[in-house]
Amino acid sequence: MNATAVARVQVATTAFEDGVEPAVDASKLGVPAQIDSLMCRRCWDKPQPCVPSAGCLSEATVDDGWLVKSLTYWYRNNYFPNCVRPEITPLEMGLLFREILGVLDGSMLKGHINGNAKLRVFLGHDGPLSGMLGALRAAPEQHQWPAYRSNLIFEVWSGVEKETPREYVRILSNGRPLVTVTDPDFTGAVRVPWCRFGGVPGETCPPGTFITFLQEHSVEDWSEACRV
Q: What pLDDT does 133 receive?
């Protein structure tokens, strides 16, 4: 952690924002705009910036900065709302969950999507996508700072499992089946998923289980629920 703290200071003092002088106060350490720029250079094999007083950033320092932001997103959107303040999730992601329910609820069990549309697309930034991963209780290793072009794909399949026709839900996070945990902590000896989204025999999530989860983690009247 000490090495990571040093990396954050180096990122803050070396990576300039437009029109802003280098800063080392806590509010400027490793902000997403800075690390975004550095990661772009890292991915395209471009040299990292240098300043006379601080030298040049190493690739390891940039990677540390990315890990810091990944941990921040996981803690803010996954661990804290699920383990400390569970009432946050319905308020933060409830509206989007209700949108998904509007597509799935009832019609999915009949084998078709509302309005006969086979594809629905929702667009967002890294914050909402991280919030969605947290609300779905993604395993820590799958909840990183969402990179450019990151995506979550929800699929409804009809298939046969143990010689029985059935429908199931599959969720892919950047092309990989989403792994969920009941308790999104690092400390559990055995991590049990609340549903399995692999889409292969023994790794299927029943539509009813998924719909119930969305209902339990959302609110019908968001404006009313937010009143204090």
A: 94
